[in-house]
UniProtKB/TrEMBL annotation, chain A:
The keyword Repeat does not apply. The lineage of its organism: Bacteria, Pseudomonadati, Bacteroidota, Flavobacteriia, Flavobacteriales. It comes from the Bacteria. GO terms for molecular function: oxidoreductase activity, acting on the aldehyde or oxo group of donors, iron-sulfur protein as acceptor; thiamine pyrophosphate binding. It comes from Lutibacter oricola. The keyword Oxidoreductase applies. One of its GO terms (biological process) is cellular respiration. It holds the Pfam family TPP_enzyme_C. Signal peptide: none annotated. This is 2-oxoglutarate ferredoxin oxidoreductase subunit beta. SUPFAM superfamilies: Thiamin diphosphate-binding fold (THDP-binding) (SSF52518). InterPro entries: 2-oxoacid:Fd_oxidoreductase (IPR051457), THDP-binding (IPR029061), TPP_enzyme_TPP-bd (IPR011766).
UniProtKB/TrEMBL annotation, chain B:
SUPFAM superfamilies: Thiamin diphosphate-binding fold (THDP-binding), TK C-terminal domain-like. Keywords: Oxidoreductase. It comes from the Bacteria. Residues 15-217 form the Pyruvate flavodoxin/ferredoxin oxidoreductase pyrimidine binding domain. This is 2-oxoglutarate ferredoxin oxidoreductase subunit alpha. It comes from Lutibacter oricola. The keyword Oxidoreductase applies.
Amino acid sequence: MEVSDIIKPENQVFCKTQLLTDTTLSYCPGCGHGTAHSITMEVIEEMGIVQDTIGVAPVGCSVLAYDFMNIDMTQAAHGRAPAVATAISRVWPNKYVFTYQGDGDLAAIGTAETIHACNRGENIVIIFVNNGIYGMTGGQMAPTTLEGMMSSTSPYGRDVKTMGMPIKMTELVANLPGVYYATRQAVHTHKHVRKAKKAIKKAFENTRLNNGISFIEIVSNCNSGWKMTPNESNIWMEENMFPYFPLGDIKVNGKLK
Amino acid sequence: MSELKLMKGNEALAEAAIRAGADAYFGYPITPQSEVIEYLMTEQPEKRTGMVVLQAESEVAAINMVYGAASTGKKVMTSSSSPGISLKLEGISYLAGAELPAVIVNVVRGGPGLGTIQPSQADYFQSVKGGGHGDYHLYVLAPSSVQEMADFVEDAFDIAFKYRAPVLILSDGLIGQMMEKVELKDQQERLTDEEVIKRHDSWATTGKTNRERNIITSLDLVSEKMEARVHRLMAKYKKMEEEDLRFEKIMCDDADYLFVAYGSSARIAQKAVELGREKGLKVGLLRPITLFPFPKKQLLDLADQVKGMLSVEMSAGQMVEDVKLAVEHKVPVEHFGRTGGIIHTPEEVLEALEQKIIKENGSIRYHKTRESSIL
């Protein structure tokens, strides 16, 4: 039997969401971004809200998210996605507006925009992919780089005496009354992907119900930046990132866990 | 019905934005333009027309909110004063790069740095030479009265949407703060969401329906594509020059000497023209209403007629460079202007013309310079 005999529509048990384009991903093989993209798009497709969804892409590895997400998208200046999303949501109050940002974008240069959008309780979804490093610019130290972790700008490991401890954004924003839902997820195993997708769905449901901000952190790997194989990086993430950035809900329905 | 009111320039601008059917204003307080957001917050246009008004956490956030709202085809405006505009420049460059319509207002104060809260025109370079990074220009309107503060809002929106480009209203602390009689136009209806989608569905991010997705970005990693984008922008600027250049000529027909001035300085220079005429000096004024595009050809034509020009601006000499470029060394061009928040008087302006242009007999000096350059 030839392969072409097997690959037929009637034999298809899984298919890619229509909301992902066929453009080759610019992400490194093994990176979690692709999975985070696809579950976000699956949620939008399943909820049937594509005509009412506007995404905001950041600056960082996912700057080209609009090449892969088959929805209307605006690319924001570095760190400003929450301000951009704020305005879109204010002038189109019935739309589903989300930002997709990395740790440098959201937790360093865009800290003010993040905190204030959360404090105002904008009716948007923030998807925050935290891999503890600046991937796109070549592996520099991020605000979320772990203590002692090496990067091109912390070649001897992050010195917390001079750089402070890695910042826990989700815990920080969860304390703001405007935040309705804050959770930390991962996408490196099937189990985690399913949970993360559920969280994203909950977040978009919150937008539908006008509940205010939903903040979803996805702790992810950066095998290139961490100088590891994809598998090594996932193990390293479980052993090192998860203890400091524990997975799970931090605030649900406006109440801290 | 139009309405006659006594208003501050900043208030007239804010009221005009509501009446122009603006969808949103995002701003941050800074002297001397805080009356814009104060007026809007007091007036509650959300109740009058549904216009959104939001005080942002910073000028940076405000301009990026403008970027967000503009990317969806809505009519959006922000205002600030010099140091705040410096903060907005990154966002302004993005607006130009992503080809988004928006109106930005600068009620200029003295600089550099924190400078002074008094009026100034020292942001000319920043306004017409780019300011932010990259190959771009803003269409720049310079009001010289409270009436124009109001009128130029609608004009600015029209230009912004005609070219899908950011437009700057370059005012100053004098016009922003002074009160004058102003005739306000009738309320224009805001476009409904359906109308916005109908008009701007070819480019705006309003949600993907049965069409290709719309993407708003200023990023082109392929050099040829980026160059094509830059060429597209340059074509817009050329068209602006051909179709939307604005200027005003006052007593130019028989003028031997010319003031070139915009905004507040144009008002003062106009008085200096009167004073000069009383003394028997044939003085005229060319007032650029748009600073970009700049009335280059009009100045070049006048260079064949007048003996010299004095560029008058509340700065250490910025627009004077463009006047010099425009006249191609045909006549002497000098600068006069007070800085630091000091507003020059008409008498000072006329005296400067007499001393710098008339008494020095600029035309003779010019020919000498030219001969020496030939030698």
